[in-house]
């Protein structure tokens, strides 16, 4: 037998046996792994089933049309009226001009410049006989209103824009007691001309310190004939009432879908979500509400609003806007005199389905809520309201007088001035004094302007009070020539906002409106502040801020305050705080005057004292030089910076 290698002899059987063993182990391991995985999946806790929620019956969101040109073409409109409005008056005038267009054989639409692409103004020439009207209010230090800010920026930034095909006119709304009277209206009028647009009628300017309604009506009476002449059209002569909304009563509706006073989003007062603004106000708790004056028949008050957790930020000089409600007694009287159930749920729906403004106020709601939260029932109604309501007077003499007051005739203007404005007749007083006038409540609700937010200068500094906003105001209440007692809506509402009312904590819907009224950027700059009465409000914030800066070790310039009121022992408000600030050096000099504590009047010239150096900032509350006998108008040579709040 030949010799054989022992390793060679035993190698092959060994390899076969090992391969077979590895294969078995592999299968066993694989089976174990698969079994474990199956066990894990089978034994794992089953997820809880997702409950099925009933789908909410909400309308499908629609994409808002940002092209006003396409909308005008689609709806056959050739006149567009843009408005820049802070208190609602410019928007009201815009609506009136848009309705006028129909009487002149044209079709108008109202537009908020914030909602459209204003770069399309150059395309307006694509529409035959087209015209753009701008009703622009001026706010604060000659600023645009919030909704016109983007339009203002666009005008400033687009020097190469060609508006040669644009026909336009402008009506501005302002107040002559302010330094920058009608600045926005003047700017828009001039700027559009610079960019090549054609002005078809002169700039109109309304003065809210005088008679804004008369200014508008006089301008409007001349404006439309100029339009007719420019486009070669004639008035249709149709002076009938034109309804913009139709009434729908809801007899069977889920009350959770009914607005109860919310400004924007339904139930926004129940579930608060930042950011907070004019369409989404924050419900601030009232933590302080105290009377400031020691005596007298007036009521000057100091309120503090808690903004903890709201993420609201403010600076000294800003304004706080509050949304008041009408007196329930007035609302009930309106319901009684018109014989209407105020708790009926209604909607007023725009007859123009293409309009962005579907309702005049949040709908659906009740008449009571509309008259309490959404409509202005205390101001004397404007002439267009009287004109529209005249048709419902059963006495021909009442009809005649109402139409006369709405006309531009000298007799009509005089009658409106004396019977409505001078007598301070609101809509309730007019209905009481005209027994034959009983309009449908839905048409009245369509015509009345919106109840607007009220703005107050913040009387605190966020450096000292980051979670609190202070308000200083005087309650408005007076007797009219008819013997009625008229009360200011917001101030009386605030007066009654007790810290706790029947166990409930009082809240105020509010938001912040930024202002240009500021302390100098450099804390070392000297400041002279002039604030009579409650006009001292913003300066309380400035004084607090300069005191805080001194506490931080910062160098602070000289700070002088001029304050005046009627009687030292009655309405010298914040006396302890002011005298304390002078004592601790925050106020360099406190000058006070009391107009009724002596026979003669005291006057000061506001040239800075010798200790001041340029640049000195002179900060003046509104109307100080015209309403305060002890204050002389400052000379321009005295100061390098003059700012009115």
Automatic annotation (TrEMBL):
Keywords: Endoplasmic reticulum, FAD, Flavoprotein, FMN, Membrane, NADP, Oxidoreductase, Transmembrane, Transmembrane helix. Residues 79-224 form the Flavodoxin-like domain. Pfam families: FAD_binding_1 (PF00667), Flavodoxin_1 (PF00258), NAD_binding_1 (PF00175). Residues 633-645 have a biased composition (Low complexity). Its EC number is 1.6.2.4. One of its GO terms (cellular component) is cytosol. Residues 279-520 form the FAD-binding FR-type domain. It is an enzyme of class 1 (oxidoreductase). GO terms for biological process: response to hormone. SUPFAM superfamilies: Ferredoxin reductase-like, C-terminal NADP-linked domain, Flavoproteins, Riboflavin synthase domain-like. InterPro entries: CysJ-like_FAD-binding (IPR003097), FAD-bd_FR_type (IPR017927), Flavdoxin-like (IPR001094), Flavodoxin/NO_synth (IPR008254), Flavoprot_Pyr_Nucl_cyt_Rdtase (IPR001709), Flavoprotein-like_sf (IPR029039), FNR_nucleotide-bd (IPR039261), NADPH_Cyt_P450_Rdtase_alpha (IPR023173). The keyword Transmembrane applies. GO terms for molecular function: flavin adenine dinucleotide binding; FMN binding; NADPH-hemoprotein reductase activity. This is NADPH--hemoprotein reductase.
């Amino acid at each position: 037998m030949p010799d054989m290698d022992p390793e060679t002899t035993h190698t092959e059987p060994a390899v076969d046996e090992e391969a077979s063993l590895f294969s078995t182990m592999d299968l066993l391991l694989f089976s174990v792994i698969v079994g474990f995985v199956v066990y894990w999946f089978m034994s794992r806790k089953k997820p809880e089933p997702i409950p099925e929620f009933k789908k909410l019956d909400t309308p499908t969101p629609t994409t808002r049309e940002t092209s006003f040109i396409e909308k005008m073409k689609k709806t056959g409109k050739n006149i567009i009226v843009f408005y820049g409005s802070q208190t609602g008056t410019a928007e009201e005038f815009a609506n009136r001009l848009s309705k006028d267009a129909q009487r002149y054989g044209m079709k108008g639409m109202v537009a908020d410049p914030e909602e459209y692409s204003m770069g399309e103004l150059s395309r307006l020439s694509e529409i035959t006989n087209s015209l753009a009207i701008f009703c622009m209010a001026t706010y604060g230090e000659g600023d645009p209103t919030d909704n016109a800010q983007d339009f203002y920026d666009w005008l400033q930034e687009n020097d190469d824009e060609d508006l040669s095909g644009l026909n336009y006119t402008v009506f501005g709304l302002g107040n002559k007691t302010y330094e920058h009277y009608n600045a926005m209206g003047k700017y828009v009028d001039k700027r559009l001309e610079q960019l090549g647009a054609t002005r078809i009628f002169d700039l109109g300017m309304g003065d809210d310190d005088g008679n804004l309604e008369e200014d508008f009506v006089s301008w409007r009476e001349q404006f439309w004939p100029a339009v007719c002449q420019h486009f070669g059209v004639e008035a249709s002569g149709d002076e009938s009432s034109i309804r913009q909304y139709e009434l729908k009563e809801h007899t069977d509706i889920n009350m959770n879908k009914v607005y109860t006073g919310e400004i924007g989003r339904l139930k926004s007062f129940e579930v608060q979500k930042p950011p907070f603004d004019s369409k989404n106000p924050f419900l601030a708790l009232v933590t302080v509400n105290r009377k400031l004056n020691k005596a007298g028949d007036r009521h000057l008050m100091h309120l503090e609003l808690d903004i903890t957790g709201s993420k609201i930020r403010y600076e000294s000089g800003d304004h706080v806007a509050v949304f008041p409600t009408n007196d329930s007694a007035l609302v009930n009287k309106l319901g009684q005199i018109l014989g209407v159930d105020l708790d009926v749920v209604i909607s007023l729906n725009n007859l123009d389905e293409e309009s962005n403004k579907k309702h005049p106020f949040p709908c659906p709601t009740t008449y009571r809520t509309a008259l309490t939260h959404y409509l202005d029932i205390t101001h004397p109604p404007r002439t267009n309201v009287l004109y529209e309501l005249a048709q419902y007077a059963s006495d021909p003499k009442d009809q005649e007088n109402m139409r006369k007051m709405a006309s531009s005739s000298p007799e009509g203007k005089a009658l409106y001035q004396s019977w409505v404005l001078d007598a301070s007749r609101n809509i309730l007083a007019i209905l009481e004094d005209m027994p034959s006038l009983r309009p449908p409540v839905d048409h009245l609700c369509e015509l009345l302007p919106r109840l607007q937010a009220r703005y107050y200068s913040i009387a605190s500094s966020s450096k000292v009070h980051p979670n609190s906003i202070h308000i200083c105001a005087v309650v408005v209440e007076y007797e009219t020539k008819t013997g009625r007692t008229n009360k200011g809506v917001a101030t009386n509402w605030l007066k009654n906002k007790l810290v706790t009312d029947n166990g409930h904590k009082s809240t105020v819907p509010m938001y912040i409106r930024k202002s240009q009224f500021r302390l100098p950027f450099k804390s070392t700059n000297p400041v002279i502040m002039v604030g009579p009465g409650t006009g001292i409000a913003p300066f309380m914030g400035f004084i607090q801020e300069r005191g805080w800066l001194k506490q931080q070790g910062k160098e602070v310039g000289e700070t002088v305050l001029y304050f005046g009121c009627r009687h030292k022992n009655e309405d010298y408000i914040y006396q302890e705080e002011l005298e304390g600030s002078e004592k601790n050096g925050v106020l360099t000099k406190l000058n006070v005057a009391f107009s009724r504590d002596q026979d003669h009047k005291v006057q000061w010239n506001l040239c800075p004292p010798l200790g001041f150096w340029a640049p000195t900032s002179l900060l003046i509350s509104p109307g100080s030089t015209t309403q305060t006998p002890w204050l002389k108008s400052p000379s321009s040579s005295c100061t390098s910076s003059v700012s009115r709040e």
